[in-house]
Amino acid sequence: MALDDKSLERLKTCDERLQRLFIEVEKHWPLKIIEGHRCEAEQNAAFYAGKSKLRYPDGKHNALPSMAVDASPIPIDWTNSERMIYFAGFVVGLARKMDIDIRWGGDWSGWHDPKKNTFKDLVHFEVKLGS
């Protein structure tokens, strides 16, 4: 398994902890990096499309390096939320093992219950502040 060139290009825009994490994830689970850094136009487009709650420059994707990454198992199936949740559990568990403190877009509150979140961004992973 290997990340495709576009995924690697996107991952290189991210914080080194996210790079290390997703290089390791990829050894166990085929995935695609959907997005790393977002410029102002991309962030605001995501906001107006309802894919983000934040306008530029307030999103974790807006830093350079990006403090957030959007990643999905492949093949991508946007209708299979159970698979996305299963993948996220693997990513979060591996991050803990690697001592990388992340937050997942299906558990904004940290309650470990995706049903308690009103805004679900199941492909979003970010480095926690102060990590």
The helix/strand series, from N terminus to C terminus, equals: HHEHEHEE
The overall average pLDDT, rounded, is 95
- The total number of structural domains is 1
* Number of E-type strands: 4
CATH fold category name? Muramoyl-pentapeptide Carboxypeptidase, domain 2
| Percent strand | 5-15%
Strand and helix map with partners:
Blueprint: H1 5-11, H2 16-26, E1 31-35, H3 40-48, E2 68-73, H4 81-97, E3 102-104, E4 124-127
Antiparallel strand pairs: 1-2, 2-4, 3-4
Helix pairs in contact: 2-4
Would you mind describing this structure in some detail?
It is a single chain. With 131 residues, the chain is an alpha+beta fold. The chain has one domain: Muramoyl-pentapeptide Carboxypeptidase, domain 2. It has 4 helices and 4 strands. It has helices at 5-11, 16-26, 40-48, 81-97, and strands spanning 31-35, 68-73, 102-104, 124-127. It has a 4-stranded antiparallel sheet. It is globular and about 35 Å long. The mean pLDDT is 95.
